[in-house]
Amino acid sequence: MKTVVIDFKKFDHVKALHAFLAKKLDFPAYYGRNLDALYDMLTERQEDLLIYTVPYGRDFEEGVLSVLKAAEEDSRHITLKEVPMLRDLEKILSVDSPSGY
Fold this sequence. Notes:
Layout: E1 2-7, H1 14-24, H2 35-43, E2 49-54, H3 61-74, E3 78-82, H4 86-96
Parallel strand pairs: 1-2, 2-3
Helix pairs in contact: 2-3
């Protein structure tokens, strides 16, 4: 299972988030870098994917979370977990993973 952490604090713009996800999830070059394309890429995956999100209140955050939730509902390969603070996620990851990450 692949794990991705989306800490919205790290992304000033949705374009930066799309670039991060494209690289982290090995999206093909034709990935459209928009919410519809993100949904398509996520729901077409055949590999299990765990996505942790850490909210920050960015203006684009609600739209991205909506797509992630829809993808989770429509794909058996996606699990989405929202973590209120990054330090909470660090605790979760250290318990879930023998190596700490």
